[in-house]
Design a protein that fits this description.
With 149 residues, this protein is of the alpha/beta class. The protein folds into 2 domains: 1-41, no CATH class; 45-149, P-loop containing nucleotide triphosphate hydrolases (Rossmann fold), CATH 3.40.50. The protein contains 4 helices and 6 strands; from the N terminus they run βαββββαβαα. The strands form 3 sheets. It has a two-stranded parallel ribbon. It starts with 7 loop residues before the first strand and ends in a 10-residue tail after the last helix.
Length: 149
């Protein structure tokens, strides 16, 4: 992304104290327009200008020690909760790369009794139009609940 001219910062659990503050401040102040992060920021960041969250994967957890992976609705909620804060409109996009990821996302949808919109990524113009429609519908005060998936 940097090679294409985007101002990007990245944050993982490997950063501590002052380093972490410098990265967050660069994003908060607009010096970087994109923040790439691990779950270290799923909670605890309040930046009013965040308008989109992109989940590279569907959050999951072990159902029990040694058991299968299942959907993790609370981590999903905290991740997407970084957008649309302070009364602003926001969009969350979650990449789904397998049938099991799709099933986990549907578990999350059911858990929150909401509708997650499926978007075909083969047509980027259509994707942009759908995201614009979601944002416009929300701004117009319709009762749209959901996120682009």
């Amino acid at each position: 992304m940097t090679a294409e001219g985007h101002k990007v910062v990245a944050l993982t659990g490997g950063f501590e104290g002052h380093q972490r503050d410098v990265i967050i401040d660069a994003f908060r102040l607009g010096h970087a327009k994109v923040l790439i992060s691990t779950n270290v920021l799923a909670r605890g960041i309040d930046v009013s200008s965040v308008s989109m969250v992109v989940n590279y994967d569907v959050p999951d957890m072990l159902s029990r020690p040694g058991g299968p992976l299942v959907a993790d609705p609370q981590t999903y909620l905290h991740r997407i909760g970084r957008t649309g804060r302070f009364g602003r409109v926001g969009v969350a996009v979650t990449f789904v790369s397998s049938k099991s990821d799709w099933q986990k996302l549907m578990e999350i949808q059911s858990y929150f009794s909401t509708e997650i919109q499926k978007v075909d990524t083969n047509d980027w113009d259509d994707l942009e139009e759908q995201v614009t429609t979601i944002i416009s519908s929300t701004r117009a005060g319709t009762n749209f609940k959901g996120n682009s998936a």
